[in-house]
Amino acid sequence: MYRNQRSLLFLVFLFLAPTAWCSSLNSFCHLAAGNSSGLEIQGTNTDEKLPIASVSKLITSYWALIEKGRDYRYYTKVFYKKNADGTSLVHIQGGNDPYFGKEFLHFVISELNAKGIKSVKELSFDEKFKFTWNVSSKAVAIGDYTPESPTPDEVLRNLLRVKNLTADYAKTLVFAKEQGIAMASSAQLSVRKFSFQKEAEFQSNGFEFIAFRSSPLNVLLKEMNRNSNNYGSNIIFESIGGAKEFKKFIEKRLNLTSEDIEIFNGSGNRLTIEGTGNYNSARCSVVLKILIDFENVLKAQALKFEDIVSVVGADATSSSSNLYKNDVTENSVIAKTGTVSPAILLAGVISTKKGSVYFMYNMKTNGTRRDWRDAQRKIKLQITNLIQKEYNGGVPISYQAIKFIPFDKESEESPIQQP
Questions:
Q1: Of the candidates 215, 235, 262, which is a domain's last residue?
Q2: Contact (CB, 8 A) for 173 and 183
Q3: Which of 73, 145, 231, 328 could serve as a FRET partner for 154 with CA atoms 20 to 30 Å apart?
């Protein structure tokens, strides 16, 4: 009995005593939209530069919309040539499309089948073709990538892993029909050999091609932010110019230097450079300045934050909904989550009775899942109190989630390419 009492006392002490896994506030800032001209930013440690994790994806979205515009499409050209023996040669000229996965491949196969192509002797691709099978899966979204990912070798391995290129075709077919996109009721494609061929080395003589285009950029960005896709965000970021070009851009656009913000990749995940782990980092106040300019960019392109960033509650499968939904935040908080080993974040815009509010929370953690959960619990409590006490409550926005499809129903064809 005495031993049981000692055990009970130990457990009580364990849960009540201060612990090593408790998270703490790194920084916090908020600003009512009406004060944005004067930049009366309020909060704690608002000017300390800290890791911003996947809040980086807001910055990637902001830069992409400025450089490319909401209607930008990634184009992928699929060249084909029929052989006398009934087989064909196929070459994919990539366009750095961040969401070329199984659904997009199924659409390509459907179009090739319509041309009578079902048996391919060799399927080659160039360095701008980015492919992974289940691009929107959680495993891909949280993966660890370099700015070069996926390399041609990785794309080749991804293709070789797929035993049946039309696996899950029926699901894609249903999805496409819902979007008004016609596809063959069934499809097949056998490939004897996959290979990499540099863009400069491919000779298009004797080939015809079909040009496939992605959904508009704003649709891709919305999906990228929904499941915090590291893979897609890095590809988008690199397709604009990568870290060096972003540094030039942000200094010219907002007069910000590496003392204010430092971005290594589009996702915010850790990037190892010469043996050292680097995280995207920024001042809390700087993130708010970017959000203010971001809203101006959105308005100029007839968009709103909710068209690009997840709405808590309404975008039910988003990380922000899973972690921060309650009666106060539902449909009134439009935000991006962030998680890296040392930090947990939430940043975006709140619709309140006093108008729109820009905000960011950055919590310090020890990198354990238990500490992450503690930080997320604290953010949820703090943002709820902020909305209720500082801004008299939230005002739900009018918004309905849409289903994501990576490709467009339109494609372009060419005649045979002559020498």
A1: 215
A2: yes
A3: 73
Contact between 309 and 348 (Cβ < 8 Å): yes
Q: What's the CATH number where 96 sits?
A: 3.50.80.20
- Return the DSSP state at 6: H
374 plus 278 within the same structural domain: yes
Other C-beta atoms within 10 Å of 298: how many? 21
Tell me: do 198 and 287 sit in the same domain.
no
Most confident of 179-183, 234-238, 401-405: 234-238
- Is pLDDT above 80 for 12? no
pLDDT at 413 over 90: no
**3 state SS of 297:** helix
Residue 204 pLDDT class (50, 70, 90 cuts): very high
Q: Which two tokens stand for residue 48?
A: 């300390």
Half-sphere exposure (Cβ direction) of 291: Cα atoms closer than 13 Å: 33
pLDDT computed for residue 38 by the predictor: 59
Tell whether 65 and 82 lie within a shared domain. no
Residue range 144-170, pLDDT digits in tens: 999 999 999 999 999 999 999 999 999
232 with 337, same domain: the answer is yes
pLDDT reading at 322 higher than 90: yes
Same domain membership, residue 187 and residue 46? no
DSSP per position, 360-408: EEEEE--S-HHHHHHHHHHHHHHHHHIIIIIHSSB-----------SEE
Crossing angle between the packed helical segments 242-254 and 230-240, to the nearest 10 degrees? 70
Terminal alpha carbon distance of the chain: 93
Q: Does residue 278 sit within a domain?
A: yes
Structure-block tokens of residue 380: 């949820």
Beta partners for 411? 212
- pTM comes to 0.92
The beta strands (E) that lie in 33-188 are given as 42-44, 49-51, 75-82, 88-93, 119-125
Instruction: Report the number of distinct structural domains present in the chain.
Output: 2
Please name which of 117, 48, 104, 118 lies closest in space to residue 76, comparing C-alpha atoms: 104
Distance of CA 147 to the CA centre of its chain: 14
Rounded (10°) CA dihedral 51, 52, 57, 61: -110
Structure-token pair, residue 225: 């932010």
Structural domain including 132 reads 75-215
In this structure, are 227 and 375 located in the same domain?
yes
Confidence label for 411 from pLDDT (cuts 50, 70 and 90): low
One-letter amino acid at 329 equals: T
